[in-house]
Amino acid sequence: MDAFTTHTGTALPLRRSNVDTDQIIPAVYLKRVTKTGFEDGLFAAWRNDPNFVLNLPQYAGATILVAGPDFGTGSSREHAVWALQNYGFKVVIGSRFGDIFRGNSGKAGLLIAVVDQKIIEELWDFVEEHPAAPITVDLVERQITAEGFRAEFEIDDYTRWRLIEGLDDIGLTLRHVDHIDAFERNQPAYKPKTLPAKVANVD
Amino acid sequence: MGKTLSEKVWDHHVVRTAEGEPDLLFIDLHLVHEVTSPQAFDGLRQAGRQVRRPDLTLATEDHNTPTLDIHRPIADPVSRTQVETLRKNASEFGIRIHSLGDLDQGIVHIIGPQLGLTQPGLTVVCGDSHTSTHGAFGALAFGIGTSEVEHVLATQTLPQARPKTMAVNVNGQLPVGVTAKDIVLALIAKVGTGGGQGYIVEYRGSTIEALSMEGRMTICNMSIEWGAKAGMIAPDETTFAYIKGRPHAPQGADWDAAVAYWETLRTDSDAVFDAEVDLDADKLTPFVTWGTNPGQGVPLAAAVPDPETFAEESDRTAATKALEYMALKPGQKMRDIRVDTVFLGSCTNGRIEDLRAAAGVIKGHHVAESVRMLVVPGSTRVRLQAESEGLDLIFKDAGAEWRAAGCSMCLGMNPDQLSPGERSASTSNRNFEGRQGRGGRTHLVSPLVAAATAVTGTLSSPADLSGTR
Question: Which residue in A78, A180, A197 is closest to B156 by CB distance?
Fold first, then answer.
């Protein structure tokens, strides 16, 4: 995973609450077996509307999504994170996120910056007034800045550290494989195993 | 101070803990399906890693699969590739798989319990948010993303920050015609779709204790729909009786040792939850959704709400958008809403008791002429059980379609979908925009309401059929 310290880009205001992962990418787009090419499914149901914010020319090339409350609720599909990344987003700023989506983003390297809904409202107004204004999201300082605008954001320390270092979780866990070995040696016999397979008799 | 159920199970699985880091949790059971796993297996290959514990891993095909002509190759080539990729990965990494056509194939959350693999006190994960279903057994079960699927495959562990705890106390006797589905829909309407964010929830109280395992699974299944990390119910005699004798249930001395442990899995009397919610079961009535998230629901006897009556501006905006999408007007009676399709099935309500309950309502009636009804058992064994009881004939005689097992119309990924503008009464778990097919409009309902609605063509309860309302 690439290290993430700071990102500067333009933003796109998505004035909607409860944008679940089915809206971010509908299930029909989940059939691919790769992590790329999901950008065509991003917000697919809304893309037909020429007035949908993603279709407005002033926001073309935006890399920071300013989302409404409860963004990324619902299905666990990491494809939602890949679709946002494939489309070009590096950061999502919002006030509340679905747990699984936020976790997936941290693993895949999409920065989730949590701020008060009041800050979101200010950001929406700011971006709509100045769509070409560069916004900087600084993970080291946990700060969002633009000309005449500054806000702190929240992210848990561990995810922040991992993103800044560009570390992959599996590699980190495998440093402690001796702990896993020890844990496995102490498991009671009654715990189930999937192998060898046992099946019920047919009535 | 004592511990809650979830804290006990959590503490039993901590492989490593360190200041400033999430706990490393051991995973006892990893369920895998075709949609969220291919990129994880690819990751393993690229890093030259193996599956650490194939003997704690189980794969099946459910999301993408058709429910008709299952013995023919899958018609959609992209879907076929995804299913074939799972088969190839299972074979390469030595994972047990129940493929389409196999007796133990079915929705991943139906087959775990059915095989007796889902047991109290386990940690269960799957790349699917409805993994919370398995919490009905007193397991700590939650959905994960594909990066985490790869992590579990490689290490059989997951780093997890400890969530807060919440109790949902449901007490009282459920009125006739009110089910586990109505409890959870009413709960979500009360607390909102974000009400459980950051919590592991324990459902408790006399109403929960009186529910069958299948009813408990329905409730835990929808924990994610109000944002909870997981939902759990303390195991009891009902749980033990359900597990006993299943293929992977412990036997002999192992059974006794397991039960002795399982009996310790209850919240201590002096334990304190971070939050509590109370729900009175006596006052519940059949519950249905009107909007585009599972929290937008009302009693069946009520009317579509006026967005202006919501206190929060974001709720007003969301309700206005939802009514526009659903083509409904404030004040319209829920019972007057006509549907085109009724879907009975899914990991929420695709088990044998759900099919029996719906068959009991529909027997002797006929599906309304304007309605298509799909009955999709949650697993192949549920289908066979239903057929052995003659339930398939009851549904077919009533004019419903009897299908093979899978996720079917719950998620608009396989051939079973709504057309744009079509409206369904669905026993599934999500009424999101386009969830059942682009432009489709979904009302979430219980199996009883689904069956009655199929007969009348408008949202109805069984009492409406017999005139006893």
Answer: A180
The pLDDT score that the predictor gives to residue A29 is 95
Token pair listed for A2: 């690439």
| The pLDDT of residue B51 | 98
Chain A residues in contact with B432 (beta carbon < 8 A): 20, 22-23, 74
CB contact under 8 A, A74 and B157: no
Instruction: Assess whether pLDDT exceeds 70 at residue A126.
Output: yes
Residues A36-84: tens digit of each pLDDT:
999 999 999 999 999 999 999 999 999 999 999 999 999 999 999 999 9
Cα Rg for chain A, rounded, in angstroms?
Answer: 20
Q: Is A178 on the interface with B (CB under 8 A)?
A: no
Q: Which two tokens stand for residue B9?
A: 């199970």
A189 with B119: Cβ contact below 8 A: no
Measured distance CA(B156)–CA(A148) in Å, rounded: 48
- What is the least distance, in Å, from the CA of B462 to any CA of chain A? 30
CA distances A10 to A115, A132, A155, B173, B226, Å, are 18, 6, 21, 56, 33
Distance of CA A189 to the CA centre of its chain: 40
Contact (Cβ atoms closer than 8 angstroms) between residue A72 and residue A102: yes
Chain A contact for B389 (CB, 8 A cutoff): no
- Tokens 């880091």, residue located: B21
- Interface pTM, i.e. ipTM: 0.95
**A34, A70, A74 ranked by CB distance to B39: nearest:** A34
Cβ of B127 within 8 Å of Cβ of A172? The answer is no
Which of B62, B67, B61, B65 shows the shortest CA–CA distance to B400?
Answer: B67
Give the integer Cα–Cα distance in Å for B290 and B298: 7
Residues with Cβ within 8 Å of residue B463, at least 6 apart in sequence: B177, B469
